[in-house]
């Protein structure tokens, strides 16, 4: 019987088969990926499908409760809360994804080099990471944004910086454990350079626990950006952003206008919940031992 991998010029469909297997095996993973797709659709097409302009004000419709015209009600300036919540998805996801991508890339390189070669490189890296971790991370992010200015770029850099130690320490530990493993020694004996052994043999085996960290950090990054916006150091009004909207709505909860803060907070909670659930699924997708 001929396997698909034996046919010249034909790529195996193992990746898709493995993805479907992971989704079928774990309903929670399927739910999390479905929610993630829901947020991606909002991020890419939200501005096209919302019923109202998220920046348009109308004093006559200020603080109107949810109805068939304004599904999530309106805020103090008469802006449609539903439209603002949906459009804000793109900005919050962009901040989260870019911040985690930067911290993942930098932390992975630093941790892999330190874990593989050790010595003074390892000692120096640990001292730098200890210095970063000595500060309360949100306070450190506040200081960076306050010093550099509350722009979107600076929020991304600050969020990435406070997440680098998580990846660097995790990769260092995983690489340090596997650098003398049998498959790594076999790779070096077969003529692979140290760099190739590290990049193509050791590092892929360190990815599964890192995927769990990526999932958690995505949620933390969104919370960090929302927290900075809540205290006035994040995205500037009138740009739609979940943290700003919760901060603005908090002033009206006591007066009974609960919807202004509830729905942005609900979307924020749902996004963090989604990323927290995705960790196990991402780990299973990249784990070489689970591939069939």
Automatic annotation (TrEMBL):
Instruction: Name its cellular compartments.
Output: Cell membrane
- Pfam families membership: BPD_transp_1, OppC_N
**Record membrane topology:** Multi-pass membrane protein
Listed A to Z, the keywords are: Cell membrane, Membrane, Peptide transport, Protein transport, Transmembrane, Transmembrane helix, Transport
User: Gene3D superfamilies annotated for this entry?
Assistant: MetI-like
- Does Cytoplasm count among this protein's keywords? no
Q: Do you know which CDD domains this protein is assigned to?
A: TM_PBP2
Name it. Answer: ABC transporter permease
Natural source organism: Roseibium aquae
